What we know:
Radius of gyration: 23 Å
Oligomer: single chain
Number of strands: 0
Strand content: under 5%
Distance between the termini: 42 Å
Largest sheet: none
Amino acid sequence: MHGLAKAEAAYSRGDYPTALRHFVPLANAGNIAAMVGLGEMYEDGRGVLQDYAEAVKWYREAAGQGDARAQYGLGRMYENGWGVPQDDGEAVKWFRKAADQGNGNAQYNLGVMHLSGRGVPQNDGEAVRWFRNAADQGDATAQNNLGGLIQRGLGAPQDHAEAARWYRKAADQGFPGAQYNLGIAYANGLGVAQDHSEAVKWFRKAAYQDFPGAQYNLGLIYGAGRGAPQDLVQAHKWFNLAASHYPASDAEERDLATKHRDLIAARMTLAQVGEAEKLAGEWTRTK
């Protein structure tokens, strides 16, 4: 096994001192893959003290020689202001170089930059284009984002069926946001035949990953008995969990979940409320 293979094998198994020992002489001798490996180690602080400036040094050396992974890494450093002044324009420049070579991560990030108008003029069509490229390579986040844009007719003709297909691709990879979106599609018959049981199935998958929107919808389902047998204890539990998992930035949604939990509690006995709170507590402790 030659030096680079030894370094990469050590890195993969988490033996960072050994990886570093092999990467350093190779990188100093001009090996591009070793340069990128060192850049990643310094960026993440694996086997070395985290040093963004050192990461930038190695990424820049390899990126200048056309390495897509290094170009993506350098773009990420500019995007976040790690080891260099924060500069969205420079981030876009390096993401584009990597994306044009087929780097899926860079394609996704370029989609985000176009969607938000960071470093480039805001352009939904370009966001769709780059998300689609990344999605075609199996990036679940890109697939979910692409589905969302197509569902709303942003940057592409509105097509609920195509949106649902992209949600499913991401959902099948376990991406909770897509599982939630697919649940919404089944609950409302958007691009798929309306099927409340399927909606419950997908909401449950996302809820088990603590996705609050899915937990909230399960509360609605169990409270109304639509798609699952009515169960006030389960409804209270899911509303309670949703309220606890919505971030502070989603205060309105959190307050709505709390309101629904309290409305359900008014229809329950004290024993039922106690059981629901116990289930929610057990859920939280096992996470």
